[in-house]
Amino acid sequence: MKTARAAAIALLAVIALIALAPEWWATNRYETQFRATPDAPPSARFPLGTDALGRDRLSRLIYGTRVSFLLAPAAALLSCIAAAALGGLAGLAGGFLDRTIVAAADLFLSLPWLFLLLIVRACLPLNVSPAASVTITFLLLGMLGWAAPARVVRAAVRKLKSSDFVFMARARGCRPWRLLWRQLVPNVAPILLAQFWVSIPIYILTETTLGMLGLGVAEPLPSWGGLLRELEGGYFIAQPYLLAPAILLALVVGSFQLVLAREDFSI
Amino acid sequence: MAGLVLAAGLASAVLVRYSPGALVDQRELNQRLGEDSLAAMRAQKARNSNVGANFLAYLRNLVHGDLGYSESNNAPIASLIADRAPATLRELGVGLSGGWLIGLGLAIPVGRFRRAWMYDAASSATAGLLLSLPAALLAYLCLMEGAASGTVLVIVLAPRIFRFARNLLVQAYGAHHVEMARARGVREWRILSAHILPEAAPQLLALFAASASMAIGAAIPVEAICDAPGLGRLAWQAATARDLPLLVNLTMLVTLATIAAVILSESMTRKDAGSPV
Amino acid sequence: MKLRFAPPSIPMLLLFAIASTSAAAELHLTLHDEPKTLDPWLAADESAETIQYLTEGVLIRVNRLTQQPEPELAESWSISKDATRIVFQLRHGVKFPDGSPFTAEDVVRSFERLLDPALHSPVADTFKTDHGSVKLRSDGTHTVIAQFPTPTASMESLFDQVAIVSAKAPQRPYPGLGAFVIGERRPGVSIQLKRNPAYWKRDINGRPLPLVDSIRFDIEQNRDLELLRFRRGEVDMIDKLTPELFDRLASEAPGTAIDAGPTLDSEFLWFNQARRAPVPDATKEWFQSAGFRRAVSLAINRADLCRIVYRSHATPASGPVSPANKLWFKEGLVPEPFDPAAALKLLGADGFRLEGGVLRDQRGNPVQFSIITNAGSKTREQMATMIQQDLAKLGMKISIVTLDFPSLLERITRSLNYEACLLGLVNVDADPSELMNMLLSSASNHPWNPSQKSPETPWEAEIDRLMLAQAATADYHARKKNFDRVQEILHEQTPVIYLLHPNALVAVSRRVTGAKPTASFPHTFWNAERLSAGTKPQGGP
Question: What angle do CA C224, C226, C229 make, to 5 degrees?
Answer without folding.
Answer: 110
